[in-house]
Amino acid sequence: MTVSIDVPAAAADVLSKPIGHLIGGRTIDAADDHFPTTNPCNGEVLAQVASGTEADVDRAVAAARAALDGPWARMTPSARGKVLWRLADLIEARTEEFAHLEAVDTGKPVTYARLVDLPLTVDWFRYMAGWPTKLVGSTVPISAVATPGDYFAYTKREPVGVVGAIIAWNFPLMLAAWKLSPALAAGNTVILKPAEQTPLTAALLGEVIREAGVPDGVVNIVHGYGETVGAALAAHPGVDKISFTGSTEVGRHIVRASAGNLKKVTLELGGKSANIVFDDADIEAAAAGAANAVFFNQGEACTAGSRLFVQSGVYDRVVEGVARFAEQIKVGDSLDPASQMGPVVSDQQFSTVMGYLESGRQQGATVAYGGSRIGDAGYFIQPTVLTDTAPGMRVVDEEIFGPVITVQRFDDVDEVVRAANASCYGLAGGVWTSNVARAHAVADQLRAGTVWVNSYNVFDPALPFGGYKQSGWGREHGAAVFDAYTETKTVVVPTA
Ligand code: NAP
Ligand code: MG
Predict the structure, then answer these.
(1) Does 75 sit in the ligand 1 pocket, CB within 6 Å?
(2) Atom 39 (ligand 1) nearest CA
(3) Rounded distance, CA 492 to CA 180, Å?
(4) CB neighbour list of residue 317: distance below 8 Å, 6 or more residues apart
(5) What does the pLDDT read at residue 10?
(6) What is the Cα–Cα distance from 423 to 417, expressed in whole angstroms?
């Protein structure tokens, strides 16, 4: 297939043929069932993708099981670490190809794919490469017997087994890395199901995985629809664990489907994060920070600071600052190096976001900036600032997952903490203040997995990340992620 976009040669190669699954180390194309992946900047078809079936999932699970019991189990922790490090190097060396594929598939500016998505992929593999040699157990003194020392007891950490990783379309490569790197570090094998809207970087990742010397079957990739491939993985008796990133609604499906064999489940779900600006904050930094917190990645970020709370004394200045920031964002084609924001990912997402904007207007919100489509090709939406918003409005209560911020005014700390916590979600939050004691106090009271003070969206492979309430189960990253990717075994041995 020929496409009219300018991408590096290796990326063009990915687009030149139908995209197949990676199963047991081989690329497998569907006999005749494909679906297109498109460029949201113009709706153009980029490539045809094999549409996975239950039988493909069965084959991938069998390959993952064989690899788990075979070559992967026989590799030393150090050798596993080396493979992960090599993967990081190979991805880094192909930054341009990956960044271009990610940009045309998701609509995000290539500049940001290069500066954000790629480092947040490479750094994860590098950080996790250090872990296989450090997953230690402990010796445990026990008192269940009369004489101390009658028994020698210890714990060890073992892989959970075959992991199904199901991910969203907003950071396709990065989310794949966030699942694969800890899963592999702990010695598991994986079947990855990329989002149907954004399969391209997973296809190139599959090539790189083979090049890095990952044994066949350790990583399998099955493309396709959530209702078929995703559901089959979630229900499969041969899958030991599902690691899911996506909507809260689908998270519930996963939990139900996993009940058959009671597989382990971790969930990274939606959010409606509160960003709170106090009177004593550095107002310029807070306004820019609040705008970035929601408009980054077209607002398609689970942590988006989509509910902005501003203390009365600085309300007008902050609203004006956020609106001015929105006005200056350069929205354009993902491959234009000047673009700071692209289109939302799909026709469907476009309709969802426009529907929210309409509901906001109908329920009495004021559009301080934006509110409209840009152009008539592609799925471009203006960064939008809504004021006069309140709980009870859909734009305030529900996750929009688009470039829309709602602003609410508050007077005192207790009031804003109560309002911030009045959400079924609890993924993240932000506090802007020059009062250190207040920053800590509010961080303490927010029911959210991550709180950023005078900053937002700072991620690191060493920092645990995950949701309170309906934003998820479990934590990713750091030492905490290994609770999700290992089983702890206790061994008790009589000493005589
Ligand atoms: P989604 O609709 O829940 O889809 C996520 C994944 O689940 C996709 O691969 C999807 O396949 C698959 N899926 C759909 N139905 C399924 C089913 N019945 N069984 C198994 N899998 C199924 O979410 P999305 O629209 O792609 O992503 C946006 C959501 O993800 C937002 O709510 C956002 O907050 C959340 N998110 C959370 C985090 C986090 O770390 N907490 C990070 C990023 C995004 P298809 O693509 O074929 O539908
Ligand atoms: Mg696409």
Answers:
(1) no
(2) 268
(3) 32
(4) 283, 287
(5) 79
(6) 11
> Which amino acids are annotated catalytic?
268, 302
Q: Whose CA is nearest to atom 4 of ligand 1?
A: 246
CA-nearest of 78, 138, 142 to 488 is 138
User: Which residues are near ligand 2, the ion (C-beta closer than 5 Å)?
Assistant: 37, 105, 197
**How far apart, in whole angstroms, are the C-alpha atoms of residue 186 and residue 15?**
33
Q: Which amino acid is at 120?
A: L
CA distance 269 to 471: 5
In the predicted model, is pLDDT for residue 1 greater than 50?
no
Q: Closest ligand 1 atom, CA of 251?
A: 3
The one-character DSSP state at 196 is T
Provide the token pair at 111.
């500049």
Amino acid at 495: T
CA–CA separation, 107 vs 378, rounded Å? 9
Helical ranges in 163-282 per DSSP H: 172-185, 200-211, 231-235, 248-257
**Residue 374 to residue 357: CA distance in whole angstroms:** 14
Which one of the ligands is nearest to 46 CA?
Answer: 2
User: pLDDT for 190-247, tens place per residue?
Assistant: 999 999 999 999 999 999 999 999 999 999 999 999 999 999 999 999 999 999 999 9
